[in-house]
Design a protein that fits this description.
This protein is mainly α. It has 5 helices and 2 strands.
Length: 126
């Protein structure tokens, strides 16, 4: 799994630039393995405070047609994608509300995690 991002705690995304805040990539020995890794990565990825495309990608990673590689240029407009996306949006909203609630209760842990993350990113690589 690879995560490319230039966003950090306190960063402001202005309307003058591309709104992409990060790029999540997975790989595998085959399509199935890559999709399984992406499912896990999406389920463990937490972004609070802004709407994301995570629900769309969650729905795609569980869509039989996508898994089989049966896609085309109008794939996202098909009814089966729209139905699975609505379900994924509801699930993702509930998950983010639960996470936000638990983070409010454990701000100290979040602050420590952020400090450790900042420290690790600032260490020179050997």
């Amino acid at each position: 799994m690879r995560l490319d991002s230039g966003v950090h705690m306190g960063y402001a995304i202005t309307p003058y630039y591309d709104s992409m805040i990060s790029k999540l990539c997975t790989w595998g020995m085959n399509r199935t393995a890559a999709i399984e890794r992406m499912r896990r990565a999406i389920s463990e990825y937490v972004i609070l405070g802004v709407k994301t495309t995570l629900p769309l990608h969650f729905a795609l990673m569980h869509n039989r047609h996508f898994i089989e590689g049966d896609t085309h240029t109008h794939f996202l407009t098909e009814e089966h994608i729209q139905r699975s996306l609505l379900r994924a949006l509801r699930e993702e909203e509930a998950r983010m509300q639960t996470l936000a609630s638990s983070l409010r209760q454990t701000k100290e842990v979040a602050a420590i995690s952020a400090a450790v993350g900042t420290y690790l990113r600032s260490k020179p690589r050997e």
